[in-house]
């Protein structure tokens, strides 16, 4: 029940004039405000709270203990701007605390006055000068060698954690425009659990695997069922992919049409930004973890379900962008493709 200031003041006044009797307050309250016999009156807890507030603050209304609202004056706007420019990676709450203004005023200044937005950091593979040259060479070779109508199955693996994926929500950069800031980190090790092969005609997979068994017992039979004729096959340079036994098997299956480290057309290391599978894993993980699987069986079932629902037009668009990415990689000197990383195309 929300009581008015008049009702609270009457209850406090009656409490002191009736020898601190709560029952007397309730009876007088019912009579004065003409409340029906079964109508609500203040309980003892409410009366005690109003009396305590009056004794300590001189008011029957509890005053807010929080910081008062800060007016977004020009000096505050300038102070926020200078603070953000000095430390753009600090959170808005930390800036507000340091400047002694409310969080709400901080957000209002950032958005309405400075027109700043928070941008996520993007973690990418660190590239050496040798990597840059390799990426350019491979892009040029693919553009010269790969026929325009070639049907390519791009393959890759990804590790799906039951607990979800890495949360980068707190990796922000406050600025008036996107600084397109990359946070480069070395790649230590790959943890592989799920394999898929993507092409413009469909996806083969997912497969939870050992690589050799997957190629012989899953990928080859699935490919034969599709009756596609000659196809190209792409894989990255993971050790399981380029082992002697794996390469022997793949060369026999794709004679002259193997895109891989030590294949017919090389594939540069540290280049996940140039394969359509990068689109697949980003999209698939976002969809899979919306289901919040609680065990490995549920996780695998959800992966199967979401892969089956991917539309062919999405695959066609992903492969259609592949040659565009090759051209962009050669034009920017082999560096990471920021238009892809920041999703501006």
UniProtKB/TrEMBL annotation:
Membrane-spanning residues: none
Occurrences of domain DUF4817 (ranges): 4-60
Any Pfam family matching the protein: DUF4817
Superkingdom field: Eukaryota
GO molecular function: nucleic acid binding
Protein name: DUF4817 domain-containing protein
């Amino acid at each position: 029940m929300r009581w008015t200031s008049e009702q609270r003041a009457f209850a406090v006044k009656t409490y002191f004039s009736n020898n601190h009797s709560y029952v007397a307050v309730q009876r007088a309250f019912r009579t004065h405000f003409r409340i029906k016999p079964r109508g609500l009156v203040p309980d003892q807890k409410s009366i005690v709270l109003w009396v305590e507030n009056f004794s300590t603050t001189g008011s029957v209304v509890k005053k807010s203990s929080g910081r008062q609202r800060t007016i977004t004056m020009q000096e505050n706007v300038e102070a926020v701007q200078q603070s953000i420019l000095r430390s753009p990676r600090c959170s808005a709450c930390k800036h507000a605390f340091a400047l002694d203004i409310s969080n709400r005023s901080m957000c209002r200044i950032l958005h309405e006055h400075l027109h700043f937005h928070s941008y996520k950091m993007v973690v990418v593979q660190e590239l050496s000068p040798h990597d840059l040259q390799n990426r350019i060479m491979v892009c040029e070779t693919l553009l010269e060698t790969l026929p325009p109508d070639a049907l390519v199955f791009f393959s890759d693996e990804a590790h799906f954690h039951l607990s979800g994926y890495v949360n980068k929500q707190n990796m922000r950069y406050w600025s008036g425009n996107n600084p397109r800031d990359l946070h480069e980190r070395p790649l230590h090790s790959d943890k592989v659990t799920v394999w898929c092969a993507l092409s413009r005609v469909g996806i083969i997979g997912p497969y939870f695997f050992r690589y050799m068994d997957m190629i012989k017992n899953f990928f080859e039979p699935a490919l034969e069922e599709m009756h596609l004729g000659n196809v190209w096959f792409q894989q990255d340079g993971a050790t399981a992919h380029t082992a002697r036994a794996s390469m022997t098997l793949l060369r026999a299956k794709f004679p002259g049409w193997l895109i891989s480290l030590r294949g017919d057309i090389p594939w540069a290391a540290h280049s996940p930004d140039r394969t359509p599978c990068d689109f697949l894993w980003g999209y698939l993980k976002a969809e899979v973890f919306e289901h919040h699987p609680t065990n490995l069986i549920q996780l695998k079932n959800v992966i199967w379900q979401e892969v089956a629902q991917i539309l062919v037009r999405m695959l066609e668009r992903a492969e259609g962008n592949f040659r565009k990415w090759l051209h962009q990689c050669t034009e920017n000197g082999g560096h990471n493709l920021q238009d892809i990383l920041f999703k501006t195309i």
